Amino acid sequence: MTTTRAPAVERLRHLPVSERATELESMVAEQFRAVLSIPDDEPMPLYESLFALGMSSVLIGEVQQRLSDLLGENLHSPVLFNSCTVAQVVDYLTTDVLPDMFPQSASAPTALPLAMTRVLWDNVLHEMRRGGMISYQHTIAARIAEHARRRPDVDAILFEDVRVSYAKLHAESNRVGHALLRAGLDRGSRVAYLGRESHHFYTIAIACAKIGAVLVPVNPRLTTAEINHVLRDSTAEILFVELEFASLIEPLRADLAALRHMVDMDAPGDRYGRFLRWFADCPPHDLEIQVDTDDPVAQIYTSGTTGLPKGVILAHRTFFTFIDNMQRAGVDWIDWRPEDRSLSAFPGLHAGATRGSCTA
Prior knowledge:
By secondary structure, this protein is of the alpha/beta class. The protein contains 14 helices and 8 strands. The strands form 3 sheets. Strands 4-3-5-6 form a 4-stranded parallel β-sheet, sandwiched between helices. Helix 9 links the parallel strand 3 and strand 4. Helix 2 packs antiparallel against helix 3 (57-71), helix 7 (140-150) packs across helix 9 (199-211) and helix 8 (166-182) packs across helix 9 (199-211). The protein is elongated.
């Protein structure tokens, strides 16, 4: 413990004990606001993941130094890497740092044990999520919505000569989500896609994530027998198929008992026209469906080198865990900045492409 009090600590010392945590929260939020360049008139998102806010390992180091200077305490970087939100940083400082700064007198009430405090805090967050007061930030749906809110005009996808902004991607995936619901698809329904890479693939993928459906990308390089296996094994209820591969599906329709809808993406001389008309009359507003971080979002099939392709079910959290682990370890291998462009060398049917494109 330091012998010279930092100005912020002196300010806290002169406050009633009941007001210190609130003041500390304001101080911490001010440091994050400064590093992230969040305007003063914009609310500070206390419960959003640090990654969703745009924090990189470099910026976390800057916040660490700011907080250390502010409190006159050497705040170790693992504290920030192990904290998923600004609120959790505040919780740590309140329960672990403040008591050391201001020891309680013998007559003061005994504080709750730290483990119990954290259990209570986790329960509070759980109930807030259940009640819709805060969203699950570690879902693809929440990530796209946040980007659309904070950076609506920034390019989300560059495909050939097409530029799709986050606002357009969010709105169009909402419309496709409404179209899927209209077609009778809902939580857990399998939505298959057979085609080459395009920006519309990601619109469909994100729409599935928003309604709780599960995307089943089908590798167009599979044999007809393997495609038949994937569609039957996944019990896909709807299939989006590009014109180039439509002829592969027609002979299989009789065997695909679960397949209720087939949407042709395009027609001769009308690339993607049929798909665009399929959802054209659906609204762009948000879908009122709660999606959890543990909900399945994709069922991706292996190449079948030792037999038939096998489906691997991936939850929303699958696409964020590696980012969280790297942040906690202080590794900046994935240090994307708002101005960066990421070239995807994988097709959308590969987990790497879906992870990189939907969580950036």
